[in-house]
Amino acid sequence: MLRILGRTSSLNVRKVLWTCGELDLAHEREDWGMGYASTSNPAFLALNPNALVPVIIDEHGPLWESNTICRYLASRHVGGEGLLPTEPRARASVEQWMDWQATELNTAWRYAFAGLVRCVPGFDDPAQIAASVRSWNTAMTLLDRRLDHTGAFAAGETFTLADVVLGVSVHRWAASPIDRAALPAVEAYYARLKTRETFAPWALDSVP
Fold first, then answer.
1. Which of 19, 93, 109, 121 sits in a 20 to 30 Å window from 83, CA-based?
2. Which domains does the chain show, CATH number per domain?
3. Which residues form the GST N-terminal domain (predicted)?
4. b/e map of 3-24 (b: 16 or more CB within 10 Å)?
């Protein structure tokens, strides 16, 4: 049985859980981090020295980094080729947007989300929050242009892993208490994603 270590309040854990839903993978999840079992526990650090969730454990041992986990699961299990193509160029297009989500988009929203939603001490500077919100909207505007171009999903006409990792981020943007840019292509994309039963548990206003 696949084990997933991490709390569902983590966006990165939700990526993995949504991927499991798309692949119909049975799994067991354990709460770790931020109010649950400490990721500084030596037992957890032996699995991921970065002390971050998620971690998965299967018969091959532990694996960390959420986007890597999603790629691994899609590559290994039946049905995964639809999420992560094997043809090099098509796969690169998917991974391009996955990497953009992990680097550019996540970096943009991190300060504002920590200050406004998580209320993390040290993330309460109004100027830095405002700058983070501006960066967040700038990144989302870039995504809006891409979605306006494809008319469907991030990598093209079909749903892929890129939409799993971007979908949870779009939901966070939509659910957070910020001034949002008017982005019709993103709004239409978000509405399309919410029709997927596998996304529904992670598209609730109570789960930003």
1. 109
2. 2-82 (3.40.30.10), 85-199 (1.20.1050.10)
3. 1-81
4. ebbbbebbbbbbbbbbbbbbbe
